[in-house]
From TrEMBL:
It comes from the Eukaryota. The keyword Transcription applies. It is found in: Nucleus. This is Transcription initiation factor TFIID subunit 2. The keyword Transcription applies. PANTHER family: TRANSCRIPTION INITIATION FACTOR TFIID, TRANSCRIPTION INITIATION FACTOR TFIID SUBUNIT 2. Functions as a component of the DNA-binding general transcription factor complex TFIID. Binding of TFIID to a promoter (with or without TATA element) is the initial step in pre-initiation complex (PIC) formation. TFIID plays a key role in the regulation of gene expression by RNA polymerase II through different activities such as transcription activator interaction, core promoter recognition and selectivity, TFIIA and TFIIB interaction, chromatin modification (histone acetylation by TAF1), facilitation of DNA opening and initiation of transcription. Residues 602-781 form the Transcription initiation factor TFIID subunit 2 Ig-like domain. Belongs to the TAF2 family. GO terms for molecular function: chromatin binding; RNA polymerase II general transcription initiation factor activity; transcription cis-regulatory region binding. GO terms for biological process: transcription initiation at RNA polymerase II promoter. Keywords: Nucleus, Transcription, Transcription regulation.
Length: 1237
């Protein structure tokens, strides 16, 4: 907007905003008004800027005086002329460029009336002190009302800098705006209010982690940091029957607009009631055929803040107005509400009387809201929610709001979105009591949602570069409570897996400080930021505790949250500088190098460690070399990350150079010969660090015979043998001669025992305190890693040992150690699953040229099958016992072993026939009759393993030639695996049909069957099922099934057909569900990735080589083709060039892409995403064709700002004004002749 002026110094702030809304379900529209209390900060304030989208303004008043305003809705700017095409993508993108995340430009400019004077307040010294406290950001606990003279006093603190304490104070201004929204493209999502949608009708705000959503509902200051108090009044029908009954005029009764003096404006001696525009009878109105029971369901309003009023409508008894007050200042993006026939669940009932008494007034009321019939799922899913709030309230600071609400809604894009004391969750995370597979991730999601009320709503990032701090605090709080709820082993396991994932992803990426600027580009960026930022705080906590002994990150977070509550943290905005200063102040340690490496730097260190024992000096000589500069393992360029890579390439987002040296303390723990661990803290300062660590024990390493004696002693003492009895508490099973023969186990040879006896220490642990994120390659004999696995009770040490075992050369001893680990119930279930996977990995690593290759493969297969039979089958039989998953570890291991079996390979690269039949038998004889938990995920695991094994083992039959003379001999089948393949495909199809009759959790059978059919089709084993899969893409199916069907079509290569791409684009454009639309947009990106990278391309016949002077240039042509293939798979420029070559001239794709881009139902971000895709493929054309009907004459006038007006005149043109030359005349004749033909 040309008239908007952007200033760096704020001229005003918002104190309070009141919003009155009238909800019309039948027309899916809102009407209402808002009253904004503006605090001027300068005397000459002349204009106000607000964010406002898709609203129709009917009245704007400032101080009771009608004000002029300039408003340009970005959604209306999206309209393109009828003759436009995809080449005009740049014109369309420029129209909404300033309305896109992350920084939004205000769309509404209000000029203050000249009659409105800014009144300067004259206050005494005492009042000035109070005002100064407010200005500094200190909360005022006293609520002030309008004084006798009508001058409105601020009810909340004005958040300004301390330097403004002695500036003049001005009287607030009341800004009053009436508006209506008839067509929602964003902001609010309506469910059950369209033809064909059989769900309960309800609506909710599409809250988003980024600003821009709330301004689509009503005018406000919708940026990242502007806060104010809120009051929301929502007028709605009382029941569903009232919502879709006979139409009635919608009257909005907002708060009275105040005049210049603060009094209500009067006309003709009567206070004026502001009534919204009359309902347009021509607007489409939906009338649902509801049963009496459904029509009687009451509509419940769930909203941020505390409900303070519920008033029946004086004019329409079928409607009422519910008012909510939020006295804690929050940003506009943290405002959310929902209206629907919700069932209200009291989640606070899990507290017992002792908890209520202990918490007292700090006990927070927790309510859950869901559709009828989902109450039990909400109770099960949110069972820990109340305890989480109580834990955070005791260990950090009180809950920031008066109550907490959790709403579960359909079609949510994100799993959870935080608002002020209110979290809207996707119904996909609802967990029935009989489902245990997603139990842990769902619980962590709920913990994170609660933690974001403190870090995310109460405390916000000061700048985008500070987003990592807020995200890290929320993640750290969540992980720490996960330790309390799930146990220390689960906590350590989660942290180790997170560190491994960060190492894999953090290659050629920006720093986490830079990531805050790019959160709007791709969801994976936020996922990585959440993951790494919490882990950075975890290692910071380890280092702070080591340095100070008492102060860790938890204490620092507590201090920050207390400062936000008391107002010391200005506006609740936390910056990286403030966080670092707080850490250094409380931790009494300088952290510049830490923040430079882990916050402002990118990448992870790679340590190569070598060690040897010097007997003369009695020291352990160690060399630590950092080799992260040599890293070449960037995540591959693949369809699933294609769009993110391309966006970062186009936006010129480059990763900083990897640091050659990471510095900091590292704890090295040496378990010496007597079994005593000695810790040594060394400082890593250089790229190559050489150490000499003193040795303490004078005795040699424990002999094997001594170990056997100690084991027998420990058993005889029934676990009461002191510390020595704990040395062999893990993996010490299946060691009797009979068990060794039955399980085909071997132990160390005498040579190995002698070598072990010569060692001076048991094992060495690098980074024993988990203070680093990266890779540590420690050169150490295998038996030392085995000792670490069996004797170190730290889960991270066991993980490192398992990783080394699986990467070592396959050996019979390795198989024996892994199967003992798998069978020992005392190990954490993650380590046991890792052991099962390790058996398969060792089998895959067997050298085919070795003499005992077949023997080793047979041993690995035998151990896995024997373990499954021992754990889950009747004694001495292959028949599985009825499932019993009362111990969740049994379920995890029972799923892990089949997954590992599917990775086994024989000498031909196939999955052994016995394993394939194993999957069929377990599917056939699965018994879940006495199990209180559903077996749908276990069956899905077996189906996936079966499909994977069939695909790997499939071989195309080779043509055979026989010469028979005399009697006919029976011919061998061309494919001996064909009967088993057919049986397996039939089993998958059977479970797919079962899901159509008896729905499983999230249609897991259908999802798994579609994934299996995709693999089988790509392998050429299943017939073309495109028509059947297409049936699942219809809107009548479940959203997850539809998305899986589209992804299946993309993966099998159907998306290479322009008809399929056009269908996908039309589905995106016409899809009402934001969740499905977002997932289909991701599928579209993957389809483009497949095309760009050349996946699933049909094999083209080799062209005949061209001849030149008798020379064949075949080598040059093939070299260029190879170079092109390498370029498209490794570089963004090459992939874009390949994409242009494939789609640049496809007219059908152009039309479909432009149809989706100009769809009237897409959000601004979705339109911009399509414009970005079009910009990759087609050159921009900054022109528009105008079609004029001849022979009428037209006139044209330039209206300014790129607008041209054409209109007809009365005359008819019969001849050109100037004679045409021969060339133009000939061209016109050719055009006429071509048109007539």
């Amino acid at each position: 907007m040309d008239g908007i002026q952007h200033t760096s110094v704020p001229e005003y702030s918002i104190l309070k905003q009141r919003v009155d809304l009238d909800v019309d379900f039948a027309r899916r529209s809102l009407k209402g008004s808002t009253e904004i209390t503006v605090q001027p900060l300068v005397k000459d304030l002349r204009q106000l800027q607000l964010h406002c989208r898709q609203c129709t303004l009917t009245s704007v008043q400032a101080g009771g005086i009608t004000a002029k305003y300039e408003y340009e809705d970005p959604y209306r700017r999206l309209r393109m002329p009828a003759g436009s095409n995809v080449h005009q993508h740049e014109m369309l993108k420029e129209k909404v460029l300033h309305s896109l995340a992350p920084r939004l430009r205000p769309e509404l400019l209000i000029a203050l009336p000249p009659k409105l004077k800014i009144q300067e307040l004259h206050v005494d010294a005492g009042s000035a002190a109070v005002t100064a406290a407010r200005v500094s950001g200190t909360p005022n606990l006293e609520r002030h009302e309008t004084d006798a003279d009508g001058v409105a006093i601020a009810e909340t603190p004005i958040l300004a800098s301390a330097g403004q304490h002695h500036l003049p104070q001005f009287a607030p201004i009341k800004l009053f705006i009436e508006f209506e929204v008839d067509n929602f493209r964003d902001g609010v999502h309506w469910i059950g209010s369209e033809e064909g949608d059989k769900r309960y009708p309800y609506m909710y705000t599409k809250a988003s982690p980024l600003p821009g959503n709330t301004s689509c509902i009503f005018p406000c200051v919708d940026n990242a940091t502007a806060r104010c108090t809120w009051e929301l009044s929502i007028r709605c029908p009382r029941t569903l029957g009232d919502a879709f009954g006979k139409s009635s005029a919608m009257t909005v009764e907002p708060a009275e607009p105040l005049g210049v003096d603060g009094n209500a404006r009067m006309e003709n001696g009567v206070a004026e009631k502001h009534t919204a525009a009359n309902t347009d009878p021509s607007m489409p109105q939906l009338s649902l055929d509801l049963s009496e029971e459904d029509a009687a369901l009451e509509l419940v309003v769930a909203c941020v803040g505390e409900q303070i009023d519920d008033v029946a409508d004086a004019e329409d008894d079928t409607r009422h107005t519910v008012t909510f007050s939020l006295t804690d200042p929050v940003t506009a993006r943290h405002i959310a509400f929902a209206v629907g026939p919700f069932e209200r669940i009291d989640l606070s009932s899990v507290r017992d009387a002792d908890d209520e008494e202990r918490l007292g007034q700090r006990a927070v009321k927790v309510d859950g809201f869901c559709l009828p019939g989902r109450g039990d799922q909400v109770r099960n899913t949110c069972y820990p929610a109340t305890r989480i709030i109580d834990y955070f309230g005791v260990n950090y600071t009180s809950f920031p709001f008066s109550s907490y609400k959790i709403l579960f809604a359909d079609d949510m894009v994100h799993d959870t979105v935080a608002a002020a004391g209110f979290t809207i969750c996707s119904s996909h995370i609802l967990l029935p009591a009989d489902i245990i597979e997603p139990l842990e991730p769902t619980t962590r999601t709920i913990i994170r949602a609660v933690a974001e009320q403190w870090a995310g709503v109460s405390v916000i990032a000061k700048e985008p570069s500070d987003a990592w701090v807020v995200s890290g605090i929320a993640g750290y709080m969540s992980d720490l409570y996960g330790k309390t709820l799930l146990g220390n082993n689960a906590y350590r396991w989660q942290q180790k897996l997170a560190a491994e994932k960060v190492y894999e992803l953090d290659a050629d990426r920006p720093s986490i400080s830079q990531h805050g600027h790019y959160l709007h580009l791709d969801p994976s960026i936020r996922e990585f930021l959440d993951l790494k930022s919490a882990l950075v705080l975890f290692i910071l906590d380890r280092r702070l505790l080591k340095a100070s002994g008492t102060t860790g990150v938890q204490r620092i977070i507590n201090k920050i949250l207390v400062n936000a509550t008391t107002g010391t943290l200005e506006n609740g905005e936390l910056s990286t500088v403030d966080f670092q200063r707080q850490c250094e102040k409380l931790g009494h340690n300088k952290l510049e190098s830490f923040f430079r490496q882990w916050v402002f730097g990118a990448g992870c260190p790679i340590f190569q460690v070598s060690q040897r024992f010097n007997k003369k000096k009695l020291v352990v000589e160690m060399t630590i070399l950092q080799r992260q500069i040599e890293r070449q393992t960037k995540p591959p360029f693949a369809p699933n990350n294609f769009m993110r890579e391309i966006k970062e390439h186009v936006q010129e987002i480059w990763a900083p150079e990897t640091l050659p040296v990471f510095t900091g303390p590292m704890t090295i723990r040496i378990h010496e010969a007597d079994g005593t661990p000695y810790e040594h803290i060394v400082e890593i300062k250089e790229q190559t660090t050489k150490l000499e660590i003193p040795y303490n024990t004078k005795y040699k390493r424990l002999k094997r015979s001594r170990r056997q004696k100690d084991r027998a002693m420990a058993e005889s003492n029934n676990g009461e043998g002191g510390e020595e009895s704990l040395l062999y508490c893990l993996g010490d099973i299946l060691d009797s001669p009979e068990e060794c023969r039955e399980w085909n186990l071997v132990d160390w040879t005498s040579e190995d025992e002698d070598r072990m006896g010569q060692e001076s220490y048991e094992w060495i642990r690098m980074d024993a305190d988990f203070e680093w994120i990266g890779k540590i390659h420690l050169t150490m004999p295998l038996y030392m890693y085995v000792s670490q696995l069996q004797q170190d009770r730290d889960l991270v040490a066991q993980y490192d040992s398992m990783r080394y075992l699986t990467l070592a050369n396959p050996h019979h001893v390795s198989f024996s150690i892994l199967v003992r680990t798998l069978m020992d119930h005392r190990y954490f279930h993650g380590i046991r699953a890792m052991a099962a996977d390790g058996l398969a990995i060792l089998v895959a690593r067997v050298d085919p040229q070795s003499s005992n290759a077949d023997e080793l493969r047979t041993i690995g297969q035998f151990h896995l099958m024997k373990a499954f039979e021992e754990l889950f089958c009747f004694p001495g039989e292959n028949m599985p016992r009825p499932n019993d998953w009362t111990n969740r570890a049994n379920f995890i291991v029972q799923c892990a072993i089949p997954r590992s079996m599917a990775k086994l390979r024989d000498g031909e690269g196939k999955v052994p026939l016995a394993i394939r039949r194993f999957f069929m038998d377990k599917l056939r004889f699965n018994d879940n009759s006495d199990n209180p938990f559903s077996d749908c995920h276990y069956v899905a695991t077996l189906l996936t393993c079966l499909a994977d094994s069939l695909v790997v083992s499939h071989r195309e039959p080779q043509p055979t030639y026989t010469f028979s003379f005399g009697e006919d001999e029976p011919m061998e089948p061309e494919n001996p695996d064909e009967p088993l393949e057919a049986e397996g495909i039939n089993a998958i199809e059977r479970y797919r049909r079962i899901d159509e009759w008896e729905t499983t959790y999230h249609n897991i059978y259908s999802l798994t069957a579609l994934e299996c059919l995709q693999k089988l089709t790509k392998a050429g084993m299943a017939k073309d099922k495109t028509s059947e899969v297409l049936q699942y893409t219809r809107p009548a199916n479940a959203d997850l099934v539809r998305v899986a069907a589209f992804r299946c079509l993309v993966e099998i290569g159907v998306a290479r057909k322009m008809s399929m791409m056009a269908y996908l684009l039309h589905c995106i454009a016409d899809e009402p569900s934001p969740f499905v639309r977002g997932r289909l947009l991701a599928c579209f990106g993957e389809a483009l990735g497949h095309i760009a990278l050349g996946d699933s391309e049909p094999v083209q016949p080799r062209p005949q080589p061209a001849e030149a002077d008798g020379l064949i240039l075949e080598q040059a042509a093939s070299s260029e083709a190879r170079q092109f293939e390498v370029s498209r798979k490794t570089t963004p420029d090459g992939a874009i060039a390949a994409l242009k070559a494939a789609l640049g001239n496809e007219d059908r794709f152009k039309r479909a892409l432009w149809y989706a881009t100009t769809s009237p139902d897409l959000t601004l971000d979705e339109v911009a995403a399509f414009c970005d895709i079009a910009a990759l493929l087609y050159p921009a054309v900054a022109s528009a064709k105008v079609t004029l009907k001849l022979p009428r004459l037209y006139r044209c006038k330039h209206l300014g700002r790129g607008k041209m007006r054409f209109w007809q005149t009365g005359s008819v043109k019969t001849a050109p004004r100037k004679p045409l030359d021969s060339e133009d005349l000939q061209a016109i004749r050719m055009l006429v002749r071509r048109t007539s033909v």
